[in-house]
Amino acid sequence: MATIIDALKSKMNLLAGEGVSETMITEAEKTLNLSFSSEYKEYLKTYGIAAYGGHELTGITRSSHVNVVDVTKDERERNPDVPADLYVIEETDVEEIVIWQSGDGKIFYSGPNQKLTHLCNSLSEYVSK
What we know:
The chain has 129 residues and is of the alpha+beta class.
């Protein structure tokens, strides 16, 4: 199975940052009161933020529209039924669908009038689709 870094490197036109420190990751987790998956942490340490093929993944950045802390807080208000241990991976801009990840790595999606639905088992699997 490919790692998240391998999956992202395989994407044409990958736009990515330079990665963030463990301290920044820990602060984001504390602010959200949760733990990121080990895979998401690897992504953050390597890139911090990434976009490819119409996808803009959340990360740790000054840009609030893709900052995992800001986006997760906003989406928690819009989606109060989503468990508090999930964080946003991507706002798809398609029918208000939001992609979430749990600390154990599983990926879910939610949308208006839809309950949370399991999509796949890892971020690398989601990126590889």
